[in-house]
Amino acid sequence: MQVFMQDLARGAFTYAPPTVGQLSRAREVDRRYADLRLGLVDGSVVALAESLGIRRLATRDVRHFAAVRLRDGGALMPVSRAEASECHPDAAPFGSPAGTHQLE
Q1: Where are the domains of the chain?
Q2: pLDDT at residue 85 above 60?
Q3: What is the average pLDDT across 68-76?
Q4: pLDDT tens figures, 25-42
Q5: pTM (2 decimals)?
Q6: Distance in angstroms (rounded) separating the CA atoms of residues 62 and 78
Q7: What SS3 class is residue 5?
Q8: CA atoms of 39 and 29, how far apart (whole Å)
Q9: Are the CB atoms for 103 and 89 separated by under 8 Å?
């Protein structure tokens, strides 16, 4: 966590605090998928993905995100570490600054 916070402070990642609307949507997602126990963070990721029009999501939590449907009925396409490496063999591991690019 310390390394992540240092990277965040130096600008390696973009911090996008959720808007009130995104928080409301995050709570809605959490309630809809109560059996998955997504919580506020995962719900916020879904809300942000919807807001930005992102479908592919690099995550270690493939099971949860694969089950979620977006507001438009579409699905997220979670990409695991192995899949991300296959798409971008020169990418750094998750959590490292060099591996922060958006997958296409």
Answers
A1: 18-96
A2: no
A3: 94
A4: 999 999 999 999 999 999
A5: 0.68
A6: 5
A7: helix
A8: 9
A9: no
